[in-house]
Each structure stands twice: as C-alpha cells, then as structure tokens.
Write a structure and sequence with these properties.
295 residues; mainly alpha; 81% helix; 0% strand
Length: 295
C-alpha cells in the first residue's frame, strides 16, 4: 500500500507543476508563492480539525524546546528559498525541461547522505548518478538560438540551486522526523513559511519594484496539490514495511506526468531531444531504485 501512496504523491506533484506553471505565467512570483504557503497552512488546519483534536497538537508544539523550533525555522527558510528559486525557473522554462531537471534531486540527496551521514553508494547507484549527468547537461542546451540558450542556461542554473536547497531540506527532514511527530513538523513548517514569505512579500512590495500580481484560481489548487502530495508522502512513510529511499525515488516519477502536461496543455516543442534526455533520467532513477533494494 505504501508504494501506491508514493505513486499517488508523484502524480499529485506532476499535476502541481502544471497548475503552478499556469499560476505563474504573467504573474508576480513572490505573492503567488506566499498565497500557496498560506493556503497550504489552511488546508492543513482543516485536515487536523477533521482528523484529530487540535488541543493535543498545540500542546505538543508549545512543549517543543527552543533548539527544535530553531531547526524547524531553518527548514522553513530552506523550503521557502527552494520555492522561490524553483518557481522562478518553472515560470521561465518549459515544463518539458524543468521537470526532467528536477529529477536530478535524488542524486543530490544521495551525495548529501554520503557526505553527511557517511552512506556509501553501490554499483547501481553510482551508475544511476553517472547516467543522470549527460541528459541534465543536454536539457540546458535545447534552445533554438544562442541567445535563448544562454537565457535558458541561467534558469536551469537557478533551478539547480533550488534543487540543492530542497535536497538539504530533505536531509534535515530525516533528522527532524526522529525528534518529533510528522504533524507538528508540517504545521510549524507551513506556519513559519507563511510568515517568512509574507514578510518578504511586504518588503518587496514597498521597497522594490515588482511585477503585478493577478489572482488566479490555480493558486489554491496548487496549494491543495502540494498539501495532498505531502500527506500521501507521510502516509507512505507511516506504513510499517515502507522503504524511505524507495519512496523518495518513486516521487520523482512526477517528471513523467509534468512532461505529459507540458506536451498536451502548453504545446511545448523540440520534443525529440527532450524525450531522449527524459529516457536517460528514467533509467537512472530505475538504477537508483535497484541500488536501494540491493543495500
């Protein structure tokens, strides 16, 4: 059952990328992300209201020690930063490029785990890492002109920064989950993120020239898909026989759904090279999956 939860989480992530692309088109970035975070918090509150009494949760939050709060604040800052970088790239890149590049995240997580937690990669995992690098480089060079390629490379670089930040946040998750329960971490993370993004929104609004924000119905839909995907992810983690490393890799299947949305809904072109690169990435994820089972 946990594998089905992980696959459903991947599907929801793929849908989120498509709706997020639509929400960000010709729209100001920071307020859009702020409202995404705000609605994520509201959806979580509604879910908690339906599933469990709110008082015990508040009591667990109140009794968190200062060190734990500081660590969750750090996670919230990292998550907010990753949203800003990744959504900036999604806004300016075709989905058929941004989604496969985002599949590079498991590689960063594996390298981070190797450096921080002294984990060692086996033959299949090293093969997956090696196979993922050529298509990543190829996807950054699929533009039609030199000028367009240079602009695209800039946004691919920004996307890569967001991926690295997301990977660091994911490694921090591994540490935090062992110290507190999932709902407390989700609740505090969403609340702190909303606060930080709100302050960022106000500062940019009054002190810097920013683009015009237009309310779009896709914004709460994106937030709902983010929350639902996170919930499916944690449901999968809670299954007794679930494999965390496999779940993280399965979630990267979201690139397939995003790629399809890019083709059929955004009519993106130059698909032959992108499909070849996507095939390499899918094989690299499969090798990582096999390597995880061999551990």
């Amino acid at each position: 059952m946990w594998f089905a939860f992980a696959l459903l989480s991947a599907f929801l992530l793929g849908c989120k990328d498509a709706f997020n692309k639509s929400a960000l088109l010709r729209n100001a970035l920071v307020p859009t992300i702020f409202f995404n975070s705000l609605f994520c918090s509201l959806f979580l509150l509604f879910y908690l209201f339906l599933s469990e009494p709110i008082d015990p949760l508040m009591d667990r939050i109140v009794h968190l020690d200062n060190q734990m709060h500081y660590q969750i604040i750090l996670k919230s800052v990292l998550t907010a930063m990753s949203w800003v970088f990744i959504d900036s790239a999604i806004k300016n890149l075709p989905l058929t490029i941004s989604s496969p590049v985002k599949a590079f995240q498991p590689i960063v997580v594996l390298i981070g785990a190797m450096l921080l937690f002294s984990e060692r990669l086996n033959m299949f995992q090293w093969a997956g890492v090696a196979l993922s690098i050529p298509p990543f480089l190829a996807l950054s060079r699929t533009a039609d002109s030199k000028h367009k390629a240079n602009v695209q490379n800039k946004w691919v670089g920004i996307l890569l920064i967001g991926i690295v930040i997301t990977a660091v946040s994911g490694l921090l998750d591994k540490y935090l989950i062992n110290k507190s329960d999932i709902m407390v971490i989700m609740f505090c993370n969403y609340m702190y993120m909303t606060l930080f993004l709100g302050l960022f929104f106000i500062v940019r609004r009054f002190f810097f020239e920013v683009g015009t924000f237009v309310w779009k119905w896709q914004i709460p839909v994106v937030a709902l898909l983010i929350f639902a995907s996170d919930l499916m992810y944690f449901f999968a983690l809670n299954e007794p026989n679930s494999l965390v490393s496999v779940i993280l890799l399965v979630r990267r299947a979201s690139i397939l759904f995003s790629f399809v949305f890019g083709i059929f809904f955004f009519k993106e072109r130059d698909l032959k090279k992108k499909l070849i690169s996507l095939s390499f990435i899918v094989v690299s994820i499969f090798l990582l999956y096999i390597g995880t089972l061999k551990r």
